[in-house]
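Subject: Sanity check before I submit

Could someone independently write out the structure tokens for this chain? I want to compare against mine line by line before I put it in a report. The sequence has 203 residues.
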Amino acid sequence: MLLPHCHGHEEKMISRILLLIIINSCLCAATFVVNVTQSSYQAEENHNITLEWTFTTRPSRTWKELIIICELLAPSRASDLYHVHKGVEVSKSQDEQFSGRVQRDKDVLREGRIRLHVSRLRTEDSGLYLCDVKTDYGFNSGRCYLNVSAAADVSEPQRPTVDPEPEGRGRMGLYVSLVLTAAAALMVKLLLIYCFKASNSGV
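---
Independent answer below. Compare away.
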């Protein structure tokens, strides 16, 4: 940027003003912080989860300049799940992926807390969640990671089925078993008769 021609004293004043602006910007960035209550989340499909960020607040400041953008950064694309522009929630900017599944706690926002309840989780909800917060006294962002695993199959394991024997083979086996049993009984009976006769003839 070109500065107009000034005398030595005026140049020093302008340099000091520029330096103060730079220092003030650095201080705002350093003192304004966005944190996450948890850096990593693990959840199961169809379950619910609460994502929460906190940011530095100043009681004397208004929310007219408050801008919040929370989005999912997935490998394929970015999806907005929560957006506040100049203190007003913008529901139209929410991605269809999260439509009807994100609720926020309104009462905690003035405390510097962004609490989002995401219901009916899907595996495609996995990824890096970034929340940018901008106020008239600073800007910063916080991030966390969510991994949604597929729902476990809780159904009972199927028992292995045994093919029933053909009807004809089953009946044949039954007949053979009956014949063998009858033959064994007949042999025992004949053996007893033979022993009885042998003992009588010896007498």
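---
OP: Matches mine. For the report I'm noting this point. Residues 167-202 form the longest helix (36 residues).
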